[in-house]
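User: Last request for today: this protein with magnesium ion, please.
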Amino acid sequence: MLKLSGVVTSYGSLPVLKGVSLEVKGGEIVCLLGGNASGKSTTMKTILGTVPPRKGTIEFDGQRIDGLPTAEIVRRGISLVPEGRRIFARMTVWENLVMGAFTRREAPADELTEDLERIYGLFPRLRERRDQLGGTLSGGEQQMLAIGRALMSRPRLLLMDEPSMGLAPALVDLVFDIIREINSRGMTILVVEQNASVALSMAHRGYVLKNGRIVMHDRASALLEAEGVRRAYLGEA
Amino acid sequence: MDSFAILPQQLVFGIALGTVYSLIALGYTLVYGILFMINFAHGEVFMIGAYLGWGLLTWLLSAQLSSLHPLWVLPLLLLQGMIGAGLVGLSLEFFAYRPLYKRGATRLGPLISAVGASIFLQNLVMLTQGARMKVYMTSLLFPPSWRLQVAGVNISALLIVITLTSTLLMFGLHYLVQHTTLGRAMRAVAEDREMAEIVGVKVWRVIAATFFLGSSLGGAAGVLVGLYYTQIDFFMGYSAGLKAFTAAVLGGIGNIRGAMLGGLVLGIAESLAVTFMNPAYRDVITFAILILTLIFRPTGLLGERLSEWEKL
Ligand SMILES: Nc1ncnc2c1ncn2[C@@H]1O[C@H](COP(=O)(O)OP(=O)(O)O)[C@@H](O)[C@H]1O
Ligand SMILES: [Mg+2]
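Assistant: Here's the final one, the structure of the complex with magnesium ion:
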């Protein structure tokens, strides 16, 4: 479904991704692991086109999407839950969700209502708080809103950048349950995580990124066993 | 003469003037809210609106149409002034600011570009229209006899029309920003530009639309001011711009309701000042307000944006 081949991305003259190749197949949960500043968020932004790649190709459903404007990439079915949630704090919950459907603003009104109902069904808390400003929500609620907002564009591939970051352990479990639930309904997911053990237990496959290069990739269960990953990300000596 | 006797009269005048300041101030605040830049050429956009209105009115009069009723002439003047000024705003954004931002300019570059654009527009109008002032034939549209006498206060029809028009435009803008797709996109870009892009907003289109909207309100104000003062010249945008900028800062720059409130407060303060003091002090009042605001309440009356500014 998604295929990156030899992607190089730089900010200014400094290359951050130095030839990243990875693949996500339809229906999978793929986990992207890596230490701080290894280029995980940059990978996400490159796929979505907010930072264009310098070299390499990105294919989605067999068609090149590198170089397309972000709006077009979102329209084709990729959407991002960004690191740190990035809720529009001065907009209501409802407005945040409607912003998520921005590329579908020409769609019939009842389609949007239907999508809103779907999100409210998944996250009843959001329905209760729909007229509240995004900034007044708790961290967990904001993460739900960020996921809901991303789903409003009706993506087929959901990119999630550290969805468990800064959440209490109970909420982390909840977020991972939600990811499984969304995936079981047919959504393909590429998720970046620091929380490697939990992420790998839920993912089908995983990639390990180091200094802008993929240094390892395998089935998730194999990565959980792998010596290097255990040492680097699972806090084991 | 007894100052208190003319106080109600001055108040009515101050409110009308205030709504016009608010209208211009909205242009500064909209652009600031989204680009964190003071568009110092906005006063010139207002001035060009006044010239466009003057041009059309003069042409209509020379065409000797049998009846020039304000009911259709005024909307026509406003529409033309707003579209024209809006296009000037679009060009400013496209030629004077966007290239700088695309090359990673921070704050100073666009500001200098704005001052340059302001001087350019003044000279463009001076060279093409002449340096002498132009006269709005307002009395042919709003005869001086059209006036209301309420409790000893004399209110001309024109003053009422000006107040209503600016108020209506402001409410229109407020509605647009709060309740339409474009308005939501504008607020999203103002709050978190990268996130807006992530949900698929074409950020530079929204910025251009913001310039168009803010400039068109300035253009409408230009027409209204032209009709009221009847004399316009290429330099009129300078002081009007500074006053509206003061109104925007007073209300809290970047804050839409703040710009409306700031304009009103400034308009009333000015007309009260000329009631009790030498009218020559009018501008002193304005700039005293600007300086005091900046010293004691830099976020303005309704501002909560300073933290955003500092975060950048
Ligand atoms: N907007 C940016 N401009 C310049 N450098 C950046 C920018 N964003 C990230 N970087 C740099 O790119 C590298 C990778 O960042 P990032 O992709 O955010 O890493 P990760 O998400 O894996 O922690 C870091 O060294 C970071 O400093
Ligand atoms: Mg990151």
